[in-house]
Design a protein that fits this description.
Blueprint: H1 2-19, H2 31-59, H3 64-85, H4 93-110
Amino acid sequence: MRTILCLVASNIFMTYAWYGHLKKNSADTPIIRLILISWGIAFFEYCFMVPANNVFGQKEGFSPFQLKTIQEVVSLVVFGVFAIFYLNEPLKWNYIVAFLFIMGAVYFMFYSPSPKG
């Protein structure tokens, strides 16, 4: 559970660092300034991402493939909430269908067939 909580916190910082400037009229902001601001925010992303993967993920028994899959799902959920409520983007039916297919991939990533015998 600590892994997932750290991944959620990490992805909140990551999403804001990468996409937060889209709400503001930042087209005239020098690119180096946007990069430095994003890097400053991303520092906090890493403060959560590194322990999620290197400490808690291993202690909680996740494989590297499973950790990456969890991270991607968390990233999409956080971005979806961010896009809808912060960027005021509409939620379209095809986005929902695509997300359901990704959830199918998650199912297979964690699927462990019982040995026949």
